Amino acid sequence: MIRMSHTMTTAGAALLAAAMLAGCKQGPTPEQVAQTQRARAQEVADSPCPPDGLWKACSLTYRLYRAGLGVRLDSVPATDSATGKPGLLYHIGHATLAAYVFATEADRKAAVARMDTSAFIGYMSTQIYPPRTSMLQSANLLALMVSQNDEQRQRIGDAIMAGPPQAPKK
User: Fold this and answer.
1) pTM for the full model?
2) Residue by residue, what is the 3-state secondary structure of 57-126?
3) pLDDT for 152 beyond 70
């Protein structure tokens, strides 16, 4: 405990209190974190992304962003032991979406074969409590989504299940 002497002025006490409060700051606020995640999603969505029929981080982020879903892309990678690789971790409202982009569709299918798919529900299914994870598979993308909001799950699912951007027809 800090004791003030009788000679400490009110201004000195105010400075001491401000210094003590500044020392207690615990890092960025949730609002600052969300703002950083939104900016990161915008940056990824705006990066060059050739349409070639396969999902990439930029094409998925762009699709989710353009669907008007309020996408925030976390700097921490998503992890799932069955995929064997880091993924993208999105926060969309109260939903969490872990997306794993594989080199090929065969690689994605091999990863899914190692998973217990009975633990997942379809993105169009009505959610139960406790919430279950929805699994979405599209081309070379595996997405695992947790959301208790059925409409939100459907909107996210529709954006993904529309498929990756296709190359222009010649």
Assistant:
1) 0.78
2) HHHHHHHHHHCCCCEEECCCCECCCCCCCCEEEEEECCEEEEEEECCCHHHHHHHHHCCCHHHCECCCCC
3) yes
